[in-house]
Amino acid sequence: MGTPKIEISLKCSTRLKGRMPHLIIDWLPSPQGKTSGSCYGEDSVTPAETLPPYICSGTAHEGITSVFTINTNGFVAMEEPTAEYQNNMPASFGMIAAAMGNLDTSNGVGKVYFRQDASPTTLRQVADHINRAFPEDDEVEPIHALVVTWENVEPHESSRRGDVLDGKRNTFQLVVASTETASYAVLLYPRDGLQFHSTLVGGTSKPIVAGFNQGHMMPWSSWSQDSFYNLISTNEVQTNSGKRGVWVYEIGTSPYFSAIAPGEVTDLPPEAPQEGHAVEEAEEVETVSEFPVYKVYPQEVPQLSGFPEEPEETQPAVYQEPGRTEKIAAHPDPVEPYPAPNRIQPLLGPFPCPPCISPISVFSYNYETCATTRHKCSSFADCRDYTGGYCCHCRPGFYGNGKDCVAEGKPQRMNGKVSGKVFVGDSPAPLEFSNNDLHSYVVANDGRAYIAISTIPPSLGPSLLPLSSLGGVIGWAFALEQPGYENGFSIVGGEFTRQAEVTFLPGDEKLTIKQEFRGIDEHDHLVVNTELQGRLPEVPQGSTVQIEPYTEVYQYGNNVITTSSLRDYTVTLDNGVTQTKSFHWKQTIVYQSCPHDEIPKVDYQAQQLSVDQVFVMYDATNQLIRYAMSNKIGGEPEQNPCFTGRHGCDTNAACRPGQGNQFTCECATGFTGDGRTCYDIDECREMPQICGPHAICNNQPGTFRCECVDSFQFGSDGQTCIKVDRPIDHCQAGTHNCDIIQRARCIYTGGSSFICSCLPGFEGDGRICQDIDECQPGRCHQDAVCSNTPGSFSCQCRPGFHGDGFHCSSGSEREKTQCERHRDGALVGSSAFGPRGPRPLPGQFIPTCDALGNYEPTQCHSSTGHCWCVDRNGQEIPGTRAGPGTQPMCNVVLPPVGPTTRPDVSPLPPGSHLLFAQSGKIEHIPLDTTGLTLKKSEAKAVLHIPDKVVIAVAYDCVEKMVYWTEITGPSISKASLQGGDPIPVIQSDLESPEGIAVDHLGRTMFWTDSMRDVIEVASLDGSQRRVLFNTDLVNPRAIITDSVNGCVYLYWADWNRDAPKIETSYMDGTNRRVLVKDDLGLPNGLTYDPQTSQLCWADAGTHKVECITPSTGNRRKVLDGIQYPFDITFYGRNLYYTDWRRDAVIVVDSQVGKETDEFRPQKQSRLYGITAAYTQCPYAQNYCSVNNGGCTHLCLATPAGRSCLCPDNAVDVRCVQRESQS
Q1: In sequence order, what DSSP letters do the residues of 770-798 get, joined into one string?
Q2: Model pTM score
Q3: Please, what sign has the CA dihedral across residues 621, 624, 625, 626?
Q4: Nearest by Cα to 514 from 324, 331, 371
Q5: What single string gives the DSSP state of each residue in 611-630?
Q6: Is 158 buried (19+), middle (13-18) or exposed (0-12) by CB count in 10 A?
C-alpha cells in the first residue's frame, strides 16, 4: 500500500518514565467520525484529510511538520516511514510509538481507526486527563484532538511459531490534542488490551515498545535491551496522570520549543478504588508483592466508558471479540486473580538527553512465571508455567480455580457484611442499614446451604423473605455436582462479583443486589460484601413465605456467567389468606480465569442449577432472617446416593460413587476416620517441625497454618521465616519512659519515635506529671464540698442537701438529672403555653429522658423528623443521624452468630478443662483425672469470634455454658460447650466490661465495667439487670463468687493505681467492705481456693501471687517474681494464671509455692481471662437455689437468707422487693 500523509504539526518527546498498569480506562470511541478512517492489511497506512495544526519541536526541522502518517504497526510518524525501522531502531524518521511491533491487521484480523474530533464532550474528557496530570498548571482547553485506535491487532503470522499463543490480541489508543499554544499526547492502555509482549522481526524476537523518536535530527544513540526492564523493579510508578492506564505528556509549546514534560501525578488518589481500580494491600507481616492486584474487567465484556462518540456520525467503540456484534454491559470490580501477561516496567531513573529529543523506551513486556509468583497459588495447588504466564491448579482431593482451593467433602462457610438503602412498599423514606452480619454454611457433600442475616428490623425483614437467593449464591458455589458438571467454586474460585436485578410483578418494584466475593480468609471462610438498593413490595409482618423448587440455567462465557429466570412465591398472611406473586431474576457473575491455560477450564455453554427444599423464616424477636435450600448442579440427579445427597457420610467426608447404588465415604483431607465419622487431624502435634524454625503452627479444622514469630516474616518462598528489622512502637510495646497511664499518654510519631503528654488534670513534661488542684472557687455548687483527686476532682453535696455536687437542693425531692434539666430548660425557655403547661416552639429540640432521668439512647426532633444516637451525656454520636421515618440502631451490638445449623462451638470431650481467652477465640486445655496435669497435646480452640477481643470468661456448670465479655462491641455473650451458636446476652449500656462471674445456684451473673465504674447483676439470660455498686470504683476488673460456700459472697478487685484494693460484699450488695488495700500494685485476677477457703490474687504491680482468709485476714505469699499476670483460677491444688509477657498459661502448686508447668498456645499473643470448667458442679446450697428463693425477680443470697430485688427501670407492678431475711 501507499503511504498517505496527514498535514499536522507535532512536538516530540524527551523522556517517559513509569510503569503502565493495564486497565479498562477512559476510552475514546474510534471508528467513523469527522475526518476519520480505518485501515487494515499488511503494514498499512491510511490517508486522511488535512487536520488542524499541532505544535511540535525536535522533528526533522524545528517547529511545524507537514507530514503525519498513521501506521498499522502501532505508531504514528512525522514523515513517511522507511522500511528499515523494525530492524534498525532508532529509526531515521520521527515517530510516536504507542505499542509498536510487527502487527497484523490482514484478513480482517484487526483494525486501526483514526479521526479528528472537536466535539465539546470529547475535548472536555481529554482536558480532564491533561489537567489531572498537570495540577499545578493553568487548566487547558483543547480545541481539537486526533484519536488513533489500534483494535484487536495480532502479531504477524510469522510470529506464531511459539513466541505467543494464537488468538492473543492487542488494543490500545493514542490521542493527540492541541490548544492555541501547546500540544499533548495521551496514551491509553486497557487492562486486557495488551495480550502479547513481543513479535518476530526478521526471525528475531523484538519486544513491543512505546516511546518517542526524533529521527534524523538526533538519532537514538542507545537503542538496546538496556532500555527495557523486566518485571522486577524497586521503582513502581503506576501512572503519571493520577489514573491507572492513562499517561499524559506535553509534547510542545509555542513560541518556545522545549523538552517534553511528562505528567506530574504519579500517585493514585484515595478515591481511585471507588472507580473500580482498587489495590489490595498486603498484610504487614508478609512480603509486599512487586505488583499490586488491580480490579479488572474480563476481555469479553469491558465497558469502554470514556470519550463519548458523536451521536450522529460515530459508532460506539465496543471492545469485542471477533464475530461479536452486541454491546455487553460491564460488571463491576472482580478482583484479578492472575497477573496480566503483559506488564509495563518503570525506568530506574531519567536518562540524560539533549535539549530536544532523546531516545527513551517507556516499557517492555514480560510475563510472570511460577518462579516469580511467590505464594500466589493456594497452598493446596500446584503452579504450572505456560507460554504466556503461569496458572494454578488444585491438587487431587481439592477443587477450586487454583487461587482458592478447598478440600472435597469439607463443609464451607461464608461470612460478610450487608448494607443497603431499601424502600418497602409505598414508603417514601428508605430503610438504611450498614454492616449487618451475614453468615452462611454449606454441607458440601449434600449441597444443603444455610444463610443467616442479623439485625434486620421488622419493617424490612418479612419483605426480604422471597429473596432466598440473596445468600444462595453460596449454594451455587458449593452445589452438589452431578456427573460431568462442576459447581461455581470449581470454576470461579472465591474471588468474583455478582450483580442481580430483581423486578417484582405486577408492581414493577426493582431491587439491585451487588456482591463482591473477596476469597478465603485466614479462617478458611469465604468473605463477601453485599449491597442492596431499590424497592421491595411489602410483605406484612406476621406473614410467611413459601418458595417452590425451581431450576436456573447458568450461561457460561469468557469470564462471565449470566442467568435469567421467573420465580413464583406464595405469601400467607396472618389471617390465613394466601397470595401468589412472582419476580424476574437476572444476574451476572464476573470472574477472572487464568488467561494462559492452554486447555480452557469451562468447555460447556450452560449448566442447570436445581434448588429445592427452600426454607425462609424471619425471627422478629432476634431480628434475624434465615434461608436454607438444597442445591444440585447438572441434569436430573443420578440415583446413586452420592448424587442425591442421601448417603449418611460425615459432614467432613466426600461421597465416592461406585457401581449402581454403591458408594463409599472418604474423610476429607485433614480429617481421619471411616468416612461415617471423621476427626480432625492435628498436623501441628503429629508433625511438630512442619512449619520450620522461627514459626508456629496453628491447627485448624481440616488444615493448619504456619505463622512467623515476632520480628520474623515469610521470605520470598512464602515458607521460610526470616529476621526483619522493624521500627518499634514503644507506646504499644510498653517500653516508653512516659509517666503511668493514669497521668500521661504515649503518642507514637513514626519510626521508633514517640512523645509523652500529660493527661488533662495533670501538668509536666509527660515523663513526670503532677496533679493540678481543680478545686477552685465556683467549681462545685455553693452547698457542696469540692475534693481534689488525681487528675480530676469531685463535688459532694453537704449534709441536708441532695444532688450531684454541681447542683444541690434541700429537702427530700430528688435532684433533677442533666437530661431533666435540659428538657425542662427547653420547655421553660419556650414562649408557647398550652392548657397543660409550656409547649415547645416549632423547630425547637426537646430531649427525652427515661424513668431514671437519663438520656434515652435515641433522640428525635419532633419538627424535622430526624433521629440520632446520643451518649450518656446527651451528646450526638457522629454518623448516627437518620432521616425522617428512619430509626437509627442505637446501643445495638451485632452478634457474631451464624445459622444454628452450624455451631461456632466445638463440643468439649468429657472431663474437666481450663478455658482461656486469646483475642478473638476461647481455647481449652483438658486436665487429667487428677486435675494436676495439663493434657497439652489435646488443647485446641473451642470458639472462634473473629474481630472481637474477649476479656473475661466464666463457666456455668449447670447448663455447661461459657460466658464471656468482649470490649469491641462491647457485649456479654454465652455459648454451650456441648455445641451451638454464640448467644448475645447483654448488648447495651456497656463500655468496657472486663470481669464476669456466674452464680450457678441463684442463676445470676455479675460483671464489672471499668469505664462506667459500676458492678451490675442480671439473670443469666440478660434480663432483670440491676446496678449493685456505682460509687468508690475507679478501675474494677476481676470479680468472682465463692461457689463452694454457697455463693453468698462477692469479691472484686479495683486496680486503681493510686489506691488499689480488693473488696467484698454479700450477693445483694450489702455489707460492703475493703478486704485488702495494703501492698497492692495491679491486682488483675481473683480466684477462690475451696480447699483452704482462701481468696487468691495475681498482682502485675508487685509481681506476686498472694492469698488471704477473708474471715480472719490472714495473708500469705504463694509466689513472687512473676511477670505480668492478667487472670487466675484454681483447680485442685494448682493455681493457673495467664501472663501477658510470657504469652502462656502458668501452673503453680499453691501448697509449695512453685511453678510446675506452662502451656504456650501455638499463636503467641496476649492471653486474657481464664476459668475452670468442672465435670460436675461443686456441692453447695443457698436460699436462692430452690424456687428462686420465693422471689418474683432477682434472688440474691446472703449468709442469713436472701434479698428479693427488682431490676432497674422496673415497670412490672408484680415485682416484690424484700430485704435479706432468714
Answers
A1: EE-----TTSS-TTEEEEEETTEEEEEEP
A2: 0.40
A3: negative
A4: 331
A5: EEEEEEEEETTTTEEEEEEE
A6: middle
b vs e for 798-808, b when ≥16 Cβ sit within 10 Å of the residue's Cβ? eeebebbbebb
C-alpha cell recorded at residue 551 = 431450576
Tell me the per-residue pLDDT of 488-545, one tens digit each, with 9 for 90 and over.
999 999 899 999 999 998 888 999 999 999 888 777 788 899 999 999 999 998 899 9
Give the whole-angstrom CA distance, residue 35 versus residue 40: 17
| Pair type for strands 624-633 and 480-481 | parallel
Distance spanning both ends of the chain, measured CA to CA: 113
Largest Cα–Cα distance of the chain, in whole Å?
Answer: 115
Tell me which residue has cell 480468609: 521
CA distances from 232 to 44, 351, 1146 (A): 36, 19, 48
Cell of 1063: 473488696
Contact (Cβ atoms closer than 8 angstroms) between residue 1016 and residue 1028: yes
H-run or E-run covering 228: none
Q: What is the DSSP letter of 308?
A: P
Residue reference for cell 498548571: 137
Alpha carbon dihedral 64, 67, 69, 75, in 10-degree steps, equals: -30
H/E/C letters for each residue in 492-512? Answer: HCCEEEEEEEEEEECCCCEEE
Determine the 3-state secondary structure of 103 from DSSP: strand
Total residue count of the chain as it appears in this document: 1222
Grid coordinates standing for 794? 469531685
For 427-459, give the DSSP string. -SS-EEEEEEEEEEEEETTTTEEEEEE----TT
Q: Which of 1004, 1008, 1009 is nearest to 1024 (CA)?
A: 1004
For the record, the C-alpha cell of 557 comes out as 462465557
Q: What are the two backbone dihedrals, phi and then psi, of residue 614, each rounded to the nearest 5 degrees?
A: -80, 130
Specify the DSSP class assigned to residue 514. E
CA 193 – CA 97 distance, rounded (Å):
16
Cα distance between residue 1082 and residue 1100, in whole Å: 5
Q: Going by C-beta distance under 8 Å and a sequence separation of 6 or more, which residues neighbour residue 753?
A: none
Residue 1036: what pLDDT?
93
Q: What are phi and psi of 1190, to 5 degrees?
A: 75, 10
Say how far apart CA 605 and CA 815 lie, in whole Å: 77
CA atoms within 13 A on the CB side of 19: 24
Helix, strand, or coil here: 680?
Answer: strand
Which ranges of 629-680 would DSSP assign to H, the alpha helix? 641-644
Q: Which amino acid is located at 200 in the chain?
A: L
In the 8-state DSSP scheme, what is residue 927? B
> Looking at residues 142-148, what average pLDDT do you find?
87
Which of 726 and 618 is assigned the larger pLDDT? 618
User: Taking Cα atoms as reference points, which of 163, 117, 563 lies closest to residue 310?
Assistant: 117
DSSP-assigned beta bridge partners for residue 249:
185, 262
Q: HSE of 1184 in the Cβ direction (CA atoms, 13 Å)?
A: 27
Mean pLDDT throughout 629-652? Answer: 81
Report pLDDT for 278.
Answer: 30
Handedness of CA 136, 138, 141, 142 (dihedral sign): negative
What's the pLDDT band for 1212 if we cut at 50, 70, 90?
A: low
Q: Is the pLDDT of residue 1184 over 90?
A: no
Residue owning grid cell 428512619: 886
Cα–Cα dist 272/722, whole Å? 34
The H or E element spanning position 213 is strand 209-213
User: Tens digits of per-residue pLDDT, 729-750?
Assistant: 888 778 889 998 878 888 887 7
Q: Are 713 and 722 in contact (CB under 8 A)?
A: yes
Phi and psi at residue 732, to the nearest 5°: -75, -35
Q: Is 1046 left (phi over 0), alpha (psi -120 to 50) or beta?
A: left
CB within 8 Å of 598: residues ≥ 6 apart: 165, 386, 387
- 999: amino acid identity, one letter: D
In 478-568, alpha helices (H): 488-492
